[in-house]
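<context>
A single protein, sequence plus fold
<entry> Chain with its tokenised backbone below
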Amino acid sequence: MIERRDVFQAIADPTRRMIIQKLSQGPQNLAGIIADFEVSRQAIAKHIKVLHECGMITVTQKGREQVCEARMEQLDEVSNWVSESKKLWGQRFKQLEKFLEDNHQRGNELK
């Protein structure tokens, strides 16, 4: 079974978030990315692979180097999800607040 990767999986890991943040400043070769982390080259390569599969970065071969570039527009999916979730939870909290106020008023009427 092939695992489907998405932007949420990409940002789920703190190392991947740091790689995205680093690449948001501009394209970098793999060596430049690896230099900022205290993990093995293989570990960063795995994170790069996940980010690429999620569509968060592009990886192009330039001579002997692999150059990675962020695709920040992919974060729109996260932004949209957060906005919709905020609306939904805002509505639910308003309903809860009204429910609690109504029950509090009914309780005072019974005294």
Observations:
- The radius of gyration is 22 Å.
- Residues 76-110 form the longest helix (35 residues).
- DSSP finds five helices and three strands in the chain.
